Each structure stands twice: as C-alpha cells, then as structure tokens.
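Changelog excerpt

This revision adds worked examples to the README so contributors can see how folded entries look when concatenated. The first example is reproduced verbatim below.
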Amino acid sequence: MRGIIINVRNGETIKDSQNVLISMLEKLLSKSSVEEKKRILTEKYGMIMTTELEGRMHTVCNWSEAIKEMSFKEGIEKGIEKERLNAIERMIQANLTKAQIISCGYTEQEFAEAESLLCSNV
C-alpha cells in the first residue's frame, strides 16, 4: 500500500499553487459555493460538468463539510474536558477534599488527571 500527503492550503489571500492538481483541490475544498466551484473548474481548468462529475463534486464538498463539523465537535469536546480539569485544579487549590470534588459531578479519573497536572506544574 502506498500513500501520499498533499498540503491543501486554505484562505482567500493565497496564490494559486503552481501544481495544477493541488490548485484544483484547493478550489474544490475552499469555502466557495458549489456553483462557484463548478464555474472555476469549468472556466479555469476546462473541466466539462457532466452529471457524474457534479455528483462527485457534491460528494467531495459534503465530505469536506463533514470533516470540518467533526473537527469542530472534537474541539468543543476537548475544550470542555480541559475546563473540567481546570475547575478541579482550582478546587484542589481551594483545599476541597477529593470527596467534595467528586460529589460535584467529577469522576475519579478526572480528579487523578487534574491532580497529576498540578503536581507536574509545581
């Protein structure tokens, strides 16, 4: 099995890549509307929009949106986890007991992780 990694940049101020494939991918995965993407691929790259190609474009566009949504949700979850640990650290520093902290709805695992983080920061 072989694989490659392609760095697809994003942003409106970037210049087009000199590599045609990467340039096309960047346009396809951009924030532009599907209609704008079709126009660019037709005019700039000479692609003929067949029903099959349009269907594949919609699939790729939906795929990129799904990745963004998953990343967003993952970021929120990590932020919540971090804030829960920060809250436990503040409670430990305020001299609350482990039992008091656990009674506030935190888990033993969260308490142990926050305690470990506090010890490593000392």
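The second example, added in the same revision:
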Amino acid sequence: MILIIAVLFTACAFYGLRIILNRDGDGMVRVYRDKTLAASYSLTENREEVLSYDGHFNILVIRDGMVFIRDADCPDRLCVNQGKIYADGQSLICLPHRLTVTVQGGEEPVLDAVVQ
C-alpha cells in the first residue's frame, strides 16, 4: 500500500513539474511558413495580422485568447472554416499557402472523449 501511494505521489509531482516548466508565459501563437518560424505573437494581445505569401494572403486574428483565420484567398478556404483554437498544441493549417499556426503554452487541452 505504501509503495502504491509513493508511486502515485511521484507521478503527480512529475506531472505538476511538467506543467510548470512547459508554461510559456500566457501562451504564444507561432506562425510557420514552410516549416520555418515566420512570426510569433502573444495569445493575450488582441491583434489582426495579414500574412502574405507569394501574392496570396491569410488574415490571422487573435482575440480574447483565441486564434482564427478570418479570411484567405486560397481556393478551398478550409483554413477559414477550421474555427478558433486556444489550447496548447492546437493548430490551424493552410496547405495551399504552406502555413501552420500553432498555440504553444496556452490552456491545457480538454478531452472530449475517452476510448477504452
């Protein structure tokens, strides 16, 4: 019984330490173009950025701790329809413009289902 309690305590301590060390302030929005970091913005600062590339554009909006692509001139506009992201590890992707927008250090993601 003591061994089980010790293992659970150690696991909780490592989990808490991981959360503390992985925090990046209040969260950052990282914009990658062709797998290269192109820009970085605070998740807490409301802003609107026009991300242009080779004569094309994506309009990135950061508002109230959420990130979304408001408009783009790509043919399918799937990046516009992906919705808002806010949690650590979530991404928005525009394949025609080779753009990836990722949240780092935001809220912990919430599980929406558990599979056994």
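Reviewer comment on example two: The two ends are 27 Å apart (CA to CA). DSSP finds one helix and seven strands in the chain.
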